[in-house]
Automatic annotation (TrEMBL):
Signal peptide: 1-22
Organism taxonomic ancestry: Bacteria, Bacillati, Actinomycetota, Actinomycetes, Kitasatosporales
Keyword tRNA-binding in record: no
PROSITE patterns (UniProt xref): PROKAR_LIPOPROTEIN (PS51257), TAT (PS51318)
Record Pfam families: SBP_bac_1
InterPro entries: Bact_solute-bd_prot1, SBP, TAT_signal
Gene3D superfamilies named among the record's database cross-references: Periplasmic binding protein-like II
UniProt keyword annotations, A-Z: Signal
Protein name as annotated: ABC transporter substrate-binding protein
Domain of life the protein comes from: Bacteria
Amino acid sequence: MELNRRSVLAAIGAGTAAAALAGCGGGASSAGSADGPAKGEITLLTPIYEGADGKTLLEQKILGGFRKKYPDVEVNVDYTTYAQLNEKITTGLAGGLLPDVLMMGVGWIPPFAAKGAIAELPEKFASAHDYEERVLEPSRYEGKLYALPVVLDTRIVVYRKDHFAEAGIRKTPANWAELRAVAKQLTGGVRLGFDPFSIDLRQCWETFLFANGGQLFSADGKKVLFTDARGVEALQFFKDLVKDGSADYARKTDAGAPSNVQTGKASMMMTTSALWNQVQDQNPDLIADDKLGSFVLANRKPAMLQGGTLVTQSARSKHPAAARALVEYLATPESILGAAEQRGSVPGLRDLNDTGYVKENQFVDLSLQNLQHAVSEGGTAAWMEIREKIKPTLEPAVVGGQSAKDAIAELGRLAEAAIGRM
């Protein structure tokens, strides 16, 4: 039978992945003891450390330090992208060839921990460094630690201070009513007042949902909660912005391309702290002239979506001591700081709050000052199936005539079905 990404995802979502997981075992205990000496040849699968600079950082600086500490461990790196990561992991599960150490996104731990694909980590790792507790939450499943955070990617609003000043706007919007009014005031000619769509629609809607006081799922991950008025209102707000002419889904920019705020084609946009690094490379004058500001989205409450990259260990590694040693090393302050600097991401360690990197990157600094408002996506063992359905299900309401209520109801039905198959 042909094995493809859709069939593997369906198997995992339905809780019938026994055959696919046969090569991976049923839990951490199957991996053997991680208490022995760290030695052997292991593989690291990572979607970060992109490009030549990232490869140099990982292989020479970070893994160079790891080799000095663990000379009997050889690390082979398998680079991928977040677009291909889920496929690589699920294919590895099916073939029994899962890498020893994996980097994966926030929200991914419950699905893979529920299937016994990744190993539980010692709880002492959670207190080895001064982690923000909110940062550690996505690393747990049913109260147990399965991963450690490497870098965070927060979703914030960046705005043009010069556009605000020209329009006589003296403060940033405190709620959606003010945001909509300011966006309309700033819209004119080729300029949009607000660009919420240049980040992924899934992440954008989630940020607005959380700012509206909504939730994705119940604490146990078994009940869908986003189908209430909070979720509908979040999607309807996008439709209202488009109706006003102050936002345009067709005018979103691709990752890495000069953003609408950089080019002046938007006065505000949803983005991540990584935009700071991009502006430094592409438009350093905007920073030198203090033309960019940032704030946390708020309506019923302030909310900042917390994504990012976690590191975890395969439950079936043939060299568990070596794999665990690498997981621990990749989550040290030195390794985290290097990865954060390279990506423009947020380090989730209080130990790093006073570093030059944090103080120089104003978007990172804002994120760290507002971690109490951070909310993570995911929260259910069915997340890997649900996450891929959010964007295509909500898009027709944003770009077409479907109502926000109908789109959210359809997404709710899909999510309930996925959870029911677990």
